[in-house]
Each structure stands twice: as C-alpha cells, then as structure tokens.
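Example record

The entry below shows one chain as it appears in the dataset: sequence first, then structure tokens.
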Amino acid sequence: MLRVRLLNLDGSLAPQRDLFGTMAPSAEWIPARHWGPRVRLACGFREFGRFRGWLDRIFPGPSGEPAVTFYGSGDFHHVTLALLGRIREPFNLLVLDKHPDWMRGIPFLHCGTWLHHALRLPMLRRVFHCGGETDFDNAYRWLAPWPELDAGRIVVSSAHRRFRGRRWAQVDHRPLLPEALTSADGLRATLDPHRDELRRYPLYISVDKDVLIQEDAAVNWDSGLLRLEQATTILGAFLEAAEGRLAGADILGDWSRVRLGNCLNCLLIHVDHPCPPVAPADAAARNRRANAALLAALLSSQKAAPRAGTPPAASLTHAVGQAV
C-alpha cells in the first residue's frame, strides 16, 4: 500500500485538506514551515545537510511500503534529493519537469541543480526525464551533465521539439508531442528499448506540476506544455513497464507566496525566478484537481501491481485512466 505524506513547507497544501482526507485518510501531515524560508529556492550545502538530518529524524526508516510525499512549491524541488538519499536499493528515476534541474558546477544547492547531485547517488541506475522545454538548449546547456547524456544514463523525452545544438544532435530525445507519443500505445513503443531495465528495478517518480499547461496547474514558475491527462498517461506507461513497483514518489509544484530566509535565496529571487500573477483560491482549485489525478495514478499502480509469482497486470494504463 502506498503511504501518503504531506510535508508542510509553505502552506500550499492546507487548502486541499479535504482532498487528502478523502483519497488518503491516513496521510501524515508534517509541520515544516520553519524550514521553508531557509531552504526555498536555494541554500548552502551545510544548511541542506541540517535539513536532511531533520528529515531523517522525522521520517521513519524503511518499512517496505513506498511513500508519496507532497511538499508544495517547485521552489523546493531539491527536497527530492533528500528523499532519494534515503533509498537503500537500486532504483530508476522518472522526472516530469519543464526544466532540466541538472545544472552542475553551482557552489550551492538550488532547485535547478538537485538532479546533478542525484546522479552521484550509488543506488540510482537510470534517469528518465519527460516533458522538458526550457533551459535545455539555451546558455544553460553548458551546465548539462553531458557524460551521462552521451552514455544514455539520462533518457530525455522533450515536450514537443528537438533541442538545438551540436551536442543535442548526438543525443536521442524524441518529443512527447504531438499526441501520438502521449497515447498509451505510443508510450509503450517508446519504452520498449528500456523495458528490461524498468522491470528490473523499482521506480521513483518526481512530478513538478510546472510541466503542465497553465490551465491545469498554478505554479511559482513558468508553465509547461503537457495536459494533465497526458501526464497521467505517461505515469501509467512507466508504472506498467515497472510492473507497478514503486521505490517512492513526490509531487510538487503547488503555488504559494514566496517567503525567504537567507541572503542567497533573496538574491536569486530577483535574478532567476519568474513571478506569474496568481489568485490564491484559483491556484488551490487547479492544483487540487491536478494532485487528485496524479495521486489516483499512483494509487492505481499499487492496486494493479502483480503479486509475487503472478504475471503483470494486463493494462495498468487503463486502470489509471479509469481512476482519473
């Protein structure tokens, strides 16, 4: 059974209590507002180490049951690094995000650098990055982890276009759009070369709702190009390929008012952070619907996962579609 945890870093999940009360009555609410301003957007490695230590004390040790953690704004995506570091078995990682989040050479931890550090975790086998659009082939391309991209350790499925540049011409990154590739059959065919590896290891999933169009999610960053139904179809295809085996998951990208608590993130908010106008009540309503659909996809995967000694479910993507 999938456990649900709500890490309250910024208050963005509080208006959705009825959703979690209905879909996950045993969800664990974890107060963490005192950490929010200290780690939001960026922080030093020492401060992040203190945050990871606090998480280790708050979260119980491995129980054999995977957990999905909701933790608010995409400004906190580096929290995923702390969650991945707790995994004690080999796993694959699926990331749905408009941005790459893999910048290297940055002397502090940032929501745009966490994936670079995750690649150094000893248990992480392969990364599947889906739905990307921004900061892949502009000047930030020089900070990409090219050795891992060239070696195929990171498999990129962009949102709707092939990225520009000589380096990208040498990396296979088939776009998900037009819609043919976001159908269940199209995604199954796309995953065929990786099916053995996806079946071999459990899958951790990290979904930043900035990968979705603005109508489907209200975020603190710029919005992406995928519709909600396309995102859940992607989840269904990967979960089917992994035979429903989850190492864990997190869902973020809820909107909240930005509150900062150190000089570093106060500086970065002015030079590298969009601030789209958002009505809080409307943001909560859009994100509630998105969170419900994404959580339903994950819960359906656990219901459809094969028991030991039985063949895989015939059509997990159909189960996901019914739940949504």
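Notes for this example: Confidence is low (pLDDT under 50) at residues 307-324. Residues 55 and 82 are 8 Å apart (CA to CA).
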